Each structure stands twice: as C-alpha cells, then as structure tokens.
# Entry
Amino acid sequence: MAKKSAVIKNNKRGMLSKLQQERRQKLVSLAKNISLQFEERLVAQKKLSEMSRDSSKIRYRNRCGITGRPRGNLRKFGLARMIVRDLASWGQIPGMTKSSW
# Structure
C-alpha cells in the first residue's frame, strides 16, 4: 500500500494538469512557433515557466485505484497487476478467468 500523501499529491497533479491543459498547450505552441518574433516567443516561454510545475501532464503518475501502487498497472482496469489477478481469481472481473492447467 502506497503512502496516502503520495496518492493525494498525485491526484492533485492530475487535477491541476486537467485544469490548466489548454493554457499550457497554447503557451507551448506560441513558444515553438518560429514565425513569431523572438520577443513574443520569449514572453510565452517566461509565462510557461511561471506556471506550476505540477500542472504539467508528464508529472502525473498512473497508480492503482485500490492500493496506490505506482508500478505494474494495467491501463484497462486502472489497477495493479496483483489486484487484477486476485479479482480474476475470485471472479470479480466479468469475462476474465485465471488460467490453470
């Protein structure tokens, strides 16, 4: 089980990235546009650097919805591999069975 503070911090990062996604994308496109003057691109880059670092989508980490484990997650379920295996063994995931031979 992950620390609660790590899970809360990660949820905050995800929320911030969704809220400021449009503004950040707009500033990035202005800063990369070579047809603009250098001063305009510099202003856009400065505004981008003043934004919160946690609003960047790259800082968000996929975590298990139950345990908060940061590694071994399956995107389809939003759960860690071990949790998916346990739930499949108990028949909690429709259409999935644990193989045995």
Observations:
- The helical segments are 4-19, 21-32, 38-50, 81-89.
- Strands lie at 73-74, 79-80.
